[in-house]
Write a structure and sequence with these properties.
Helices cover 37% and strands 26% of the residues. The chain is of the alpha/beta class. Keywords: Cytoplasm, Methyltransferase, Nucleus, S-adenosyl-L-methionine, Transferase.
Length: 210
C-alpha cells in the first residue's frame, strides 16, 4: 500500500468504479489484497481453531468481497462485508451474484462511525483497511483511535480479530490494540532477506477482545 492512496488525486470510489467496469466488461473481480495466500491463512486459522461455521463474521473494508466468497465456499454462513465506498459495495454485490452467494450481506458503512446495528460479531477481519486509515494525512492518529473504539463496539467480548498489515510490525500492532485486546496468535507470512537480515513484509495477527 502506498502513501499515494491518500494523495489529492486518489479516490477509492474511482478505483472501485474502474474495477466495477472491468468486471462488467470481462468478469475480472480485480485485485486480491495481499494475494490468495492471505485468504488461505485466515480460513486455515478459523478451521484449525474450530470457529463454528455459523459464527457471525464481519469483513472490514471488504472491497470486492472476494474474501467473503471464499469463506462462504468454506462453509461459513453468517457473513457481512462493509466498505465506505459505494462503488466497492456495488462491485462486491455483482461478484456475489455471479458466485450465487446470496447469503452474504453487504453494506455501505464508515467503520470509524458505525451504525448501531453493526454489532455483536464473533469474528472481525481486516486486510489492509487499518493500513489505509493509518496513511490518512488528516489526523491519522485520531482515526486509529476511532478504529480501535469501533472494533470494541462491533466485536463481542472474547471475539476474534484477524488483521493483515503491510504497514505495521507485530510490536506496533500490539501497541495500537493494547486497550481491550490481547494477542492470541501470529500467522505465518512470506519472509524476505535484505542485507543479511530476514524480515516479514506482511504482518498477520489474531487478537481476542477482552
Amino acid at each position: 500500500i502506498s502513501s499515494l492512496l491518500y494523495s489529492p488525486n486518489f479516490s477509492w470510489d474511482a478505483a472501485y468504479e474502474r474495477e466495477l467496469q472491468t468486471f462488467q466488461d470481462i468478469g475480472d473481480a480485480g485485485e486480491i489484497w495481499f494475494g490468495e495466500e492471505s485468504m488461505v491463512r485466515i480460513i486455515t486459522w478459523l478451521e484449525k481453531h474450530k470457529v463454528p461455521l455459523d459464527s457471525s463474521v464481519l469483513d472490514i473494508g471488504t472491497g470486492n468481497g472476494v474474501l467473503l466468497i471464499e469463506l462462504a465456499k468454506s462453509g461459513y454462513m453468517n457473513l457481512t462485508g462493509i466498505d465506505y465506498s459505494p462503488s466497492a459495495i456495488q462491485l462486491s454485490e455483482k461478484i456475489r451474484e455471479k458466485e450465487g452467494m446470496s447469503n452474504i450481506k453487504l453494506k455501505v458503512e464508515d467503520f470509524l462511525a458505525p451504525s448501531a446495528e453493526l454489532s455483536g460479531f464473533d469474528v472481525c477481519l481486516d486486510k489492509g483497511t487499518f493500513d489505509a486509515i493509518s496513511l490518512d494525512p488528516a489526523d491519522a492518529a485520531g482515526k486509529r483511535k476511532l478504529y480501535v473504539g469501533s472494533l470494541s463496539r462491533v466485536l463481542k467480548p472474547e471475539g476474534f480479530f484477524l488483521i493483515t498489515s503491510c504497514n505495521w510490525t507485530k510490536e506496533e500492532l500490539l501497541n495500537e490494540f493494547r486497550e481491550g485486546f490481547e494477542i492470541l496468535d501470529e500467522l505465518p507470512t512470506p519472509k524476505f532477506c535484505f542485507g543479511g537480515r530476514i524480515g516479514n513484509s506482511v504482518t498477520a495477527l489474531v487478537f481476542q477482545r477482552k
